[in-house]
Amino acid sequence: MPLRKGPVLHEFRKNSLLYLMFIPVAAYFIVFAYVPMAGIVVAFKEFNYRGGMFGSPWNGFTNFRYFFLSGKAWLVTKNTFLYNVVFLGCYTFFSITLAIFIFEVESRWFKKVSQTMLFLPYFVSWVVVNAFVYNLFNYEYGLVNTIIKTLGGHAFDIYRNPATWHFLLPVFYTWKWVGFGSVLYLAALSGMDHECHEAAIIDGASITQRIRRITLPLLRPTIIILILLGVGRIMRGDFDMFYQLIGNNGRLIDATDIIDTLVFRSLVGMQDFGMASATGLYQSVLCFAIIMIVNSFIRRYEKDYALF
Amino acid sequence: MKPRRSRDVARLHTIAYIAVSLFAVFAVFPFVMLLINSFASEHAIINYGYSFWPRELSLSAYSMIFQSPQKMMRTYGLTIFITTAGTLLSLFFSTMAAYVLSRKELRYRNAMSFFLYFTQLFNGGLVPYYILISKNLHLQNSLLVLILTPMFSVLNILILRNFVANSIPASLFESAKIDGANEITLFIRIAIPLSTPAIASIGLLTALGYWNDWWTPMMFIQRESMYPLQFTLYQLLSSINFAAAMVNSLPVINMPKESLKLAMTVVATGPIILVYPFVQRYFVKGITLGAVKG
């Protein structure tokens, strides 16, 4: 046995098998997350296929200048931010409300059936949701327009009315995620013992008082975690949703263009690696800055809930 | 005192029943409409539009999809293969990593958690990822890219880690270790069986991720024979001409385009929904969020 062994080496040797078991996942994230992280240098380069990620010539801030001079920067930033704020608000509010309601009702049958129904939208891709939208709102055959026409009104084309999407997108978002959200909150409530509620009833607490003073405080950790995760992603749009529901509809672009769709269009549509990577880096840095700021606040006031 | 109290409880319960029912109906409504109208005849849709109950029933859209089933079956086969293989691999390695991160005697476990968590805080964005996959790793048009891209989620690993850490007593591992079991045995014999609720729930989420993935094929697959189900559906919905390729060798003129779109959507959605009842009983228990921090 060698006498001197570094503590680090000792730790690895003692638990070598455990560390080995972590390697597959670690390798995956090194290749698919950390290497692309280093690849952000592309934003400062004039990308060509021969040079690749690290061999292409530098061009300083040219790509960023293009992005900021394109006139799109402020628009997509604003859209991404505002949509996400509305999404997060609706998602949180409706998930909590539904979770509390489902928790309160007594019928086990009703709890089970309603949860199953609410959860159904979580199962389908946005491709399928787009088929729903088509089925319901299509100008020629859609159900809504069929009804409007039978009532003697004029058919309404949602793809020609940008403003309707400010309302429709939050509706679809809520429709899709609120079932899952309420499950997350219900899970937090399921550990709660009913004695607490019974004691409160004996003390004469009304149901609203019970919800305010017992149920909501129990949900607080989950609320904070989910909101923090949401805030951390506030500059990341739901690409799947926007791309499937709106696609490349020029008429709607000002109302519905977000950073993620702009990056995608620049990369895949125009093969503009410079602009796409500059926009992507702008988004990542913005996200990171927001998380750091929010987290430092949380650390100061609610240390237990800080993300790191 | 008593009557007033039960009255406000009753009132809240009424509101709760009504609100939850409304939301539940709202959630299911598009599914029902889709299913009903997929049985409508093309003629009825063109003339009267989609409706609550079709004026003319017809199975022609479904029979068209299954008339030349080779393409459909290949697409299904590919999607089922990717979903099954991907989910099993992902679950095995995710749970293994989660088990490692849950072991308190590991000195660097917090650093390792943060190593994963950091990828949630900052990432390179789409462009470097795209270049990496297509130029450096040459994974375009390979099955591997369809399996690797949606494989791991940091959040899922952390949820699994919390489950293992909070619901399996550490003493269980210690006593098994004294009996001479090594870490791999502990993981397979103790951690996996006792984490069933979490594994089942996360497994469903992962399987959904694979089944519903249209992004990876859109970015990295050009070969039509390798299109999975959702991407095929996307192509069909966005350009109906693809239907001709889809159900090859049929005359395009009499194609029930509108009802075909709906029937295809039903066919692409059905199987994964059927999985849910098997997983449901684990769900609320398995997905308790806890602190998902690094």
List the helices and strands and how they pair.
The complex is a heterodimer of chains A (308) and B (294).
Chain A: H1 7-14, H2 16-38, H3 52-55, H4 62-69, H5 73-104, H6 108-119, H7 126-137, H8 143-150, H9 162-190, H10 194-202, H11 207-232, H12 239-246, H13 253-256, H14 259-269, H15 273-301
Helix pairs in contact in A: 4-15, 5-9, 5-11, 6-9, 7-12, 9-11, 14-15
Chain B: H1 2-37, H2 42-48, H3 60-65, H4 69-102, H5 109-121, H6 126-136, H7 143-148, H8 154-167, H9 170-178, H10 183-194, H11 196-211, H12 215-220, H13 229-238, H14 242-246, H15 257-286
Describe this structure in words.
The complex is a heterodimer of chains A (308) and B (294). With 308 residues, chain A is mainly α. Chain A has one domain (62-305): MetI-like fold. Chain A has 15 helices and no strands. The longest helix of chain A is centred in the N-terminal third of the chain and has 32 residues, at 73-104. With 294 residues, chain B is mostly helical. Chain B has 2 domains: 2-37; 65-286, MetI-like (MetI-like fold, Orthogonal Bundle). Helices cover 73% and strands 0% of the residues of chain B. Chain B contains 15 helices and no strands. Chain B has helices at residues 2-37, 42-48, 60-65, 69-102, 109-121, 126-136, 143-148, 154-167, 170-178, 183-194, 196-211, 215-220, 229-238, 242-246, 257-286. Chain B is globular, with a radius of gyration of 24 Å. The termini of chain B are far apart. Classes of the chains: A mainly alpha (308), B mainly alpha (294). The interface between A and B is large, with 111 and 107 residues.
